[in-house]
């Protein structure tokens, strides 16, 4: 378990990422190549990425440089996900280039020596080799991440809308309470229940940056070094087209119809009618029609909030979605 300790100042300085973080998405996407866990949620992306990388110079660089540098393990170097990437890909790459070689050497030394990666990667302490790394990361982002950029943006918009409602209803503590079953908030400690190691992090007035991630799967992630500005990367709920397009979800579409399956999935994290229409790609009137049908079937519930209607999945709807996976 990871236990994150907040003060009142930390709560005041806690915020949600405004944009997908490109460096964290690169890291989490590379982990998707190293396990079958969660592949159903990224099936279309995975198939396209493998095809795009096959028999290419970039594909070879992914195998020989990026995968060893980003192992799906307890540790990979913190310098690969700099805080500057909150300002975009180029800002993150520039931060990697600006690092002192001593920090690169120190962090690479912590990679599992039994995997044989640390010795090969020490050359990245040299600025010229680090330029090779950043060029590779830029190319990887263009080929592998950008094809799903619109979906990433739409999912983050939905997540921010949901957390905004939590903030209005319960303040920052309401946001922390609502992060999902992987977390437990008992003031002043946020516990990450399924974390790769057991430790305590005291924010000491620095606050916390919450980063919803498209490619992160099940286990939230943070920096290994507790002295760095703290970030908590957590998986976004799989919703809408990504949820239904996976082969294991096609049974749901066959059962209730493709459009209604998309609408049901879009309600998984809570959504208004207009948010559903935007995520799924249909008119607000069509979205309203499908939500009425799903509500009459007992699969979603709806309640009015100011000028909007908020839809969420009922237990029956959750059970149906699980049974058709």
Task: Name the helicity range.
Answer: 40-55%
Q: Tell me, briefly, the overall form.
A: globular
Looking across the biggest beta sheet, what order are the strands in? 3-4-1-5
- Give the end-to-end Cα distance, rounded to a whole number of Å: 28 Å
Number of helices: 15
**What is the number of E strands?**
10
Mean pLDDT: 88
Structural category is alpha/beta
Q: Give start-end ranges of low-pLDDT stretches.
A: 239-248
User: Tell me about the biggest sheet?
Assistant: 4 strands, mixed
Total number of domains: 3
Query: How big a fraction of the residues is strand?
Result: 5-15%
Radius of gyration using CA atoms only: 21 Å
What order do the SSEs take from the amino end to the carboxyl end, as H and E?
EHEHHHHHHHHEEEEEHHHEHHEEH
InterPro entries: ArsR-like_HTH (IPR011991), HTH_ArsR_DNA-bd_dom (IPR001845), Metal_resp_trans_reg (IPR051011), WH-like_DNA-bd_sf (IPR036388), WH_DNA-bd_sf (IPR036390)
Keywords: DNA-binding, Transcription, Transcription regulation
Pfam families: HTH_20
Domain HTH arsR-type: 240-325
């Amino acid at each position: 378990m990871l236990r994150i300790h907040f003060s009142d100042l930390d709560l005041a300085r806690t915020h949600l990422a405004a944009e997908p973080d490109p460096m964290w998405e690169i890291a989490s996407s590379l982990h998707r190549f190293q396990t079958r866990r969660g592949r159903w949620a990224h099936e279309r992306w995975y198939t396209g990425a493998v095809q795009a990388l096959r028999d290419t110079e970039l594909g070879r660089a992914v195998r020989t440089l990026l995968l060893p540098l980003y192992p799906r393990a307890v540790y990979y170097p913190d310098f690969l996900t700099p805080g500057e990437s909150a300002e975009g890909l180029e800002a993150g790459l520039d931060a990697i280039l600006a690092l002192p070689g001593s920090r690169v050497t120190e962090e690479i030394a912590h990679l599992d020596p039994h995997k044989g990666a640390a010795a090969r990667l020490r050359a990245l302490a040299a600025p010229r080799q680090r330029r090779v790394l950043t060029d590779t990361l830029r190319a990887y982002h263009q080929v592998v991440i950008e094809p799903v950029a619109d979906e990433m943006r739409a999912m983050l918009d939905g997540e921010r809308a949901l957390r905004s409602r939590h903030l209005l209803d319960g303040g920052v503590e309401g946001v922390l309470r609502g992060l999902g079953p992987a977390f437990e908030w008992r003031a002043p400690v946020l516990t990450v229940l399924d974390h790769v190691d057991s430790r305590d992090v005291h924010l000491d007035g620095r606050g916390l940056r919450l980063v919803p991630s498209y490619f992160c799967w099940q286990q939230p992630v943070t920096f290994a070094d507790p002295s760095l500005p703290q970030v908590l990367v957590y998986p976004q709920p799989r919703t809408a087209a990504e949820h239904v397009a996976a082969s294991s979800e096609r049974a749901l579409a066959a059962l209730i119809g493709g459009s209604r399956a998309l609408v049901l999935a879009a309600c998984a994290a809570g959504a208004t009618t207009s948010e559903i229409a935007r995520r799924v790609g249909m008119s607000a009137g069509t979205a309203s029609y499908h939500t009425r049908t799903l509500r009459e079937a007992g699969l979603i519930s709806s309640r009015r909030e100011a000028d909007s209607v908020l839809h969420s999945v009922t237990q029956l709807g959750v059970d149906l979605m699980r049974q058709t996976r």
